[in-house]
Amino acid sequence: MQNRYLTTDMKNILALSMLVSSMMICSCQKQESTAQQQQLDQRKVELDAREEALAERKTVLDGREKTLDERQNALDQREKALAQKEGAAANARTNPTDVQGQTVNAERESITQQLSASAPNRSQLEAQKAQKESGRQQQSQRELEFKAERERVRQLKLTGAFMAGDSANPAASTTSSTPPPAQEDTSASPSQTPE
Asked: What is the CA radius of gyration of the chain?
């Protein structure tokens, strides 16, 4: 009889331990799925924010494109108006001679030159930029050369002073106190170059 109770108790303990372990597993899975759902929700919010930002950018770009189209249309209308003025001026003249044709052509060319001059030429702008950049590079090169020359002169002076202080020979001290002509020339050259 005792054996029977032990078997029943063992079955109950086994069933209870299985039940507890399965409940723990389910609980862990539920927590993991909740954490995953939160991560997915956060990613969705981030993606929605990015999508809204992209939509705003697109709206801004569309506005810019519309503005550029309006400017292009305004320029086209100005061109047409100028062409009509030229045509009206040509029709108003009663004496159509070669001289008048030449003046009309000259006026037309001057107007087209004015229009082309009002719109900056890209190649001219790039050439100006390149020229400015080369000027800056030359200036920085000159500054570097000046600094190097100044450093070299300073080193020569330090070396000359060091040699003058260390020499026990009076002949050596007199020669080091008066720098050679090459050193005098180099010390004078940095002051001649502008900074």
From this structure: 45
Q: Are 142 and 193 in contact (CB under 8 A)?
A: yes
Query: Greatest CA separation found in the chain?
Result: 141
Residue 107 · residue 86 · CB < 8 Å: yes
CB distance 87 to 111 below 8 Å: no
- The pLDDT value given to residue 103: 78
**String of DSSP letters for 60-106:** HHHHHHHHHHHHHHHHHHHHHHHHHHHHHHHHH-S---HHHHHHHHH
Report the predicted TM-score, pTM, of the whole model to 2 decimal places.
0.30
163 contacts: CB under 8 Å, gap ≥ 6 = 172, 176
d(CA 163, CA 181): 17
Q: Give the N- to C-terminal CA distance of the chain in Å, as an integer.
A: 113
- All residue ranges of the chain with pLDDT < 50 are 168-179, 181-191, 193-195
Of all helices (H) and strands (E), which one includes residue 14?
Answer: helix 2-92
Give the tokens for residue 157: 């002076």
Residue spans per domain, the chain: 31-90+102-117, 134-195
Nearest to 87 by CA among 111, 73, 104, 102: 104
- Position 61 scores a pLDDT of 94
Element (H, E) at 144: helix 122-166
